[in-house]
Amino acid sequence: GAVVSQHPSRVICKSGTSVKIECRSLDFQATTMFWYRQFPKQSLMLMATSNEGSKATYEQGVEKDKFLINHASLTLSTLTVTSAHPEDSSFYICSARGMRVADYNEQFFGPGTRLTVL
Amino acid sequence: GQNIDQPTEMTATEGAIVQINCTYQTSGFNGLFWYQQHAGEAPTFLSYNVLDGLEEKGRFSSFLSRSKGYSYLLLKELQMKDSASYLCAVRLTGGGNKLTFGTGTQLKVEL
Predict the structure, then answer these.
(1) What is the pLDDT of residues B84-105, one digit of tens each?
(2) Do B43 and A105 touch (CB under 8 A)?
(3) Quick check: B102 and A32 CB within 8 A?
(4) Cis before A111? omega within 30
């Protein structure tokens, strides 16, 4: 149990276009999902916390108008990178926290999305 | 700000034991996590400590000292497949289960 999927796994786009990444909890309901970005040989940097039915909370330095987050249901959150530029090329990873008390201590990570902006 | 430090790289021999240290200075503390991450893949959960002491889980053990702001991950009977990056992460208080990750330690297991 506790499987999180991401789609697409890999995307290449032209500079200036927008890219949507989906994060789904497959076998549990996730009240909270997290979006991270990871540059090569660096650790995960939290971008935003997404709560179902409410606005996302962005970390300092992350532009909310550039990285649009929608958490419309208990199993789906989306991250849209608007007007992508080469510096946005990165590995984007989502994670989800379950609703059960037993899951509180763990975040379940998706497999990640490799974004390359040409 | 939050500060979580780990050694950048470590090398160990197959079959040996390795200890990866993590020190933290954060504005709050509500648990420390260790994750394993292979290149190009998502992190996988290894262990969780919230109280002082040692948590053992098979070949992996994790220790926490809250007063010292210190944790370590101990890997026994190293296997080649243990070559990966090991991430220490602190859950902050009042953060809604938000995790702050350390810099990660790249472990290379050699024959």
Answers:
(1) 999 999 998 876 678 899 989 9
(2) no
(3) no
(4) no
